[in-house]
Amino acid sequence: MIAFVRGEVAALTLTSAVLEVGGVGLELLCTPGTLATLRPGHLATLPTSMVVREDSLTLFGFVDDDEKAAFELVQTASGVGPKLAQAMLAVLSPDDLRRAVASDDVKTLTRVPGVGQKGAQRIILELKDRIGPPVGGRVSTPVSMIPAWRDQVTQGLLGLGWSAKDADNAAESVAPQAGDHPDVGALLRAALRSLSKA
Fold it and tell me: DSSP characters for the chain?
């Protein structure tokens, strides 16, 4: 098991980061909020979770240990695989997820693409006794000085399966919230909320 990866960020894509570790480039699948904290050429340390399948070994990278723990826990609910777990964390912070489960908030969980009402009820039923209370940690990671926040939000939405037109419209709808120091993770969550209402 690979618990974390530390190295220089060699490349960023819509859905992943490549970190160079000992001359080897390791690709980590990450949420848009995690990707927004990384810069090519800078050193980064990301907690990781390895998912082993018959035909693949996939590393998922996280902004912190809390996000990693939430990712691993939600997969213990039936019907939740790593891709859906990652989508949940792209929309909800770990504390938002804990609050939604603890308060039987089906509506919040169904904002995640791929989670319907029955799926949300099953997740709540199976995780309620194990997910714990909100820890009061990171609500969203502040990201300062991102000139291309809109492009990152749009690309994040495209990576989650939305059409280019929907992604552009959602990014436009959250533009007034960007301010001087846009928080891409928060803007992406706001964009996803606007799409789920449409």
Answer: ---EEEEEEEEE-SSEEEEEETTEEEEEE--HHHHTT--TTSEEEEEEEEEEETTEEEEEE-SSHHHHHHHHHHTTSTT--HHHHHHHHHHS-HHHHHHHHHTT-HHHHTTSTT--HHHHHHHHHHHTTTS-------SS------TTHHHHHHHHHHHTT--HHHHHHHHHHTGGG--SS--HHHHHHHHHHHHHH-
Domains with residue ranges and CATH for the chain:
4-61 (2.40.50.140), 66-127 (1.10.150.20), 149-197 (1.10.8)
Which residues of the chain register pLDDT less than 70? Answer: 136-148, 198
Mean pLDDT computed over every residue of the chain: 86
pTM comes to: 0.66
